[in-house]
Structure formats: C-alpha cells, structure tokens
Design goal:
The protein is of the alpha+beta class. The protein has two domains: 48 residues, no CATH class; 125 residues, no CATH class. It is 44% helix and 24% strand. It has a five-stranded antiparallel beta sheet with strand order 1-2-3-4-5, with helices on one face. The longest helix is centred in the last third of the chain and has 27 residues.
C-alpha cells in the first residue's frame, strides 16, 4: 500500500491554483457570493487530492444513496466492504449511522458480517467520513483480549468465527487508514 501526502507548500500552491481556476471560470462575483470561501476551496482541494490518492490505492470510497434516498458512504478494500448510511437521527449530540460490513473472502453468504444502527458519531464529526469508517473498523476488528469478554456476548457464532479468522486483517487496514488520515491532517 502506498500513501499520498502533500506538503504545506504544495497544499497552498494547489489551493491557490484552484482559487484561480474558480475566478477564471466563474468571475470575481464567485468570491463574494460563496459563503465560507476558504472552506469551499479546501474541500475542493481535499476531493482533488483524495481522487489522485485513491487512483493509486487498492481501496475506494464512494458516496451514494440507499433505496430510501438516504446518504451513504461505501468503503471497499479488496474483499472488505463497509456501507454506512446516515439515518438522519440526531440525539444526545450524536448522529446515528447504520452500518453493514461484508467480507467476500470469509464464506459463501451474501449476508453482512456485522449490521446494525447503533453506531453513534459525535455531531462535531461528519456522520459519513473517513473518520467514521476508521471508527467502525476499530469496533469490528476487536479481538479476544482487546476488551471485556462481555463485549462479545451478543456476537453470533458466525461473527465469533469471523473475528478469530479475519479481524486482525481488518484491524491492520484500520491502522493504515488512521496513519493516512494523521499524515493528511485529518
């Protein structure tokens, strides 16, 4: 796996280039008509860098919608797929997210290994983000000895067998994602 990191100098050079393109394409009125101009430019640069970075990765992140029109975020890494859905529910300063984790290398079943609606993300984080993916991977990749034994009481036999066989590989992918986010300042 490779990383894609840009320096502060490159960040500001590319941010300036995006601003110049926007001014040429849309004229100076864009600058005054866009609330949060700097944030909008940073988001555009983030998307541009992420696209370049993902082009050199074995994984992908895609935004979409589920059958009910709710926003989704899908992360795929070879045989693993994590689908997050923003349920639009906000309680106790948290957003509630539905999750489904699939592992195409585990068994013949098309059923997710984990599925639920109990993932609560603090409101100061985007409910559907790389940080949420990292958080979910952290929970799904817990192994025996990582936490209290009671944590696994509600696991099915299939989930326990998957944990013993595949959780470590998912954990390593989670560490890799965390390192990339730290290097990118996320």
């Amino acid at each position: 796996m490779s990383t894609f990191v840009i320096s502060n100098e490159e960040f500001y050079t590319r941010l300036s280039a995006i601003a110049e393109r926007r001014l040429v394409d849309e004229g100076p009125a864009w600058l005054f008509a866009t609330p949060g101009v700097l944030e909008a430019l940073e988001e555009e640069l983030y998307d541009e860098v992420l696209d370049e970075w993902q082009a050199d990765q074995s994984w992908s992140v895609e935004h979409g919608e589920d059958a009910e029109g709710r926003e989704t975020l899908s992360w795929k890494e070879e045989e693993f797929e994590l689908i997050l859905t923003d349920l639009g529910t906000r309680t106790d300063s948290h957003s509630h997210v539905k999750y489904q984790l699939f592992d195409g290398n585990y068994d013949e079943s098309d059923a997710p290994i984990f599925e639920g609606t109990d993932l609560a993300i603090p409101l100061w984080h985007d409910a559907l983000s790389l940080k949420t993916i990292e958080t979910a991977i952290g929970f799904f990749s817990l192994e025996d000895g990582d936490t209290d034994k009671e944590y696994f009481d509600k696991y099915t036999k299939r989930q326990l067998a998957w944990r013993d066989k595949r959780a470590e590989e998912l954990h390593l992918l989670g560490i890799y994602l965390q390192e990339l986010m730290e290097k990118a300042g996320g």
